[in-house]
């Protein structure tokens, strides 16, 4: 197989596309490179039809390989598993512009796989994968009407740049992903847009500067066409070098002209009364009755006719209905539910609907209803990402659920599907720019949108519900955000944009255009078209029309709640950040986490510890103010402990018991010794354990602090010891304690220097190491009487106990 390579400069990017070197058995295969980012994309289609398939079975998969970043997967099995959210979103990004770009009636199984083989720290792989998919299809015998080119644009310093690096994106205020193809006149038509604002963009607006307003975004869409054209031309050049085998592909016709004419002659009258029905269920019932009546009048018996004929008649009836609705919009400006082109359905907003939630909002627009719930947590609850992204975690998570009952249907609940992941990501993109920074509000967020009922644009309803629940929780977002879905109907030279589309209008229209933002700035945008030749002026007008609707919705939301609550919801955890010296982090944590566990158990608060390179950062969370205050005080006590003072009384805890005494912790990091001789002033203590045990709380007074800072303690109150006659002996009220003489130990004589117990152990035991005699008796308190030279080799040094005595 001959290898072919094309390359070129697009914007600031040097891009190379090659084919013929890998995956020779695929219908089409290319490797596309930008810097160190490299993607293998293959396309395969089977030239046969699956029986009963009424749609184009296109499957797009993105396979992230961790070797691309030189990493071993972090999962238990150490191999890649289920596709990551980033991979799924890239699948959708590829599918959306490619699906309408095949010949009409093509229904053969087609599979596009993008394998990420290399990534660098500068260039994202998603746009390369999209261009590579189009190039692989263009270089194959699959009936693809491309090429389709794609480019990412970033608004940086007021200028749009193509193929921005990660660093460029970090400094930009808005980004656009735009895909398109050349029409018959050679001009570029836009077929897909994915866009979002950045936090920096919101800050510019707050400062009174322009960022991602409608005019700026429209200019970016227009400038993107030049770079899209370059990508299309590169792919076309590559395809022209490849020898492609001709294949006769089967094409499906939904209905014949004869069947359509027969159905149209009857259905037009039957459907006339259906057009003005507003309710989704009522309209569906009426439409079914009209179809039955049409079939009967046209001579189609659904019970006895051939299934293929019945299917053909149903498709023709659906086409007649679609044509009537579109014509009514174009000619009369009246939509299927009776609204005008710019009318928004009735909007309702409510907050605080879930009593135990940190924040909740219920948003309804027409028959679409979404409940959103906000949950706040510590930063350690952020999602950990094991992907090829630069980011290893994210603290803002938006999850979108679309159960079957929301459309009055039954179905399987097997976890989120690609559509749900995509809609959640779109809502997340819309809200993320207004979320306060980690420094200003150190929380992790999980927002869940529950679609309770759906008839058009539940994703934009989830944006509105999210804004409500965040404000209800007391999160200081920069501004409320609302979203609206726009549609388009095109007949000839007429382009009619409609506001707040129904589910049916989405299916019969030519554009699905979703716009979310604040009153001043667009935060997210998504566009899919089913037609070519969409003028830039139409897009610009659609953006302005969407802003009009967005402001109307924001006004209704403001009636429920117009700004974040001044205080956090009573159910939400309060988080306080305490800065401590870095060298104190270990003391806060304690050995094997002992101190931090005790602190959490005793105060009821939760702690997480981090560092910023200069300081240690302790974040403390608690739902109770008293619990939070107690935890903060404990941490400050550890980080900046007060100095112990002689004569002061402290409540301490026994942390160590030794034969010569007990070590007692009186302040964080400050232990003192309560010597055995000072435990009980009335009698001699034989065992420390008779008075003190590990963990005991005891009142002690600082008696002395030596030069090295060691604390000597005495009891501040009498300690309870063993009963008289057990474990100790009465202490003489006066006189010397003669260790070499007589000691009264409960009424008996014990002479350590004579008597019945001789320390010579079987005679005279000479312990003279230098020629002199050493008496085993200590000879009283005068240690100067010892005759042994302390400088002699082998001399036993005084014990730790002796030093304290």
What's the structural blueprint in terms of helices and strands?
Blueprint (H helix, E strand, L loop, with lengths): L3 E7 L2 E7 L8 E7 L2 E13 L8 E7 L20 H14 L9 E11 L7 H13 L10 E8 L2 E4 L3 H5 L3 E9 L5 E10 L1 H8 L7 H28 L15 H16 L7 H19 L8 H26 L14 E5 L7 E7 L2 E10 L5 E2 L8 E2 L1 E6 L16 H14 L12 E10 L4 H16 L8 E10 L2 E6 L3 H6 L2 E7 L4 E8 L6 H25 L13 E8 L3 H5 L4 H10 L2 E6 L3 E8 L2 H15 L9 E10 L2 E7 L2 E6 L7 E3 L11 E9 L5 E5 L12 E3 L11 E3 L4 E3 L48 H5 L1
Helix pairs in contact: 1-2, 1-9, 2-5, 5-12, 6-7, 6-8, 9-10
Plain-language structure description:
There is one protein chain. By secondary structure, the protein is α+β, with helices and mostly antiparallel strands. The chain folds into five domains: 4-241, GHMP Kinase, N-terminal domain (Ribosomal Protein S5, domain 2, 2-Layer Sandwich); 257-332, Arc Repressor Mutant, subunit A (Orthogonal Bundle), CATH 1.10.10; 347-560, Ribosomal Protein S5, domain 2 (2-Layer Sandwich), CATH 3.30.230; 574-639, Ribosomal Protein S8, Chain: A, domain 1, CATH 3.30.1370.10; 649-728, OB fold (Dihydrolipoamide Acetyltransferase, E2P) (Beta Barrel), CATH 2.40.50.140. 28% of the residues lie in helices and 28% in strands. The chain is built from 16 helices and 33 strands. An eight-stranded antiparallel β-sheet has the order 8-7-9-10-21-20-18-19, with helices on both faces. A hairpin with a 2-residue loop joins β25 and β26. α1 packs across α2 (126-138), α1 (85-98) crosses α9 (418-431) and α6 (257-272) packs across α8 (307-332). The longest helix has 28 residues, at 214-241. Mean pLDDT is 84; it is low at 732-805.
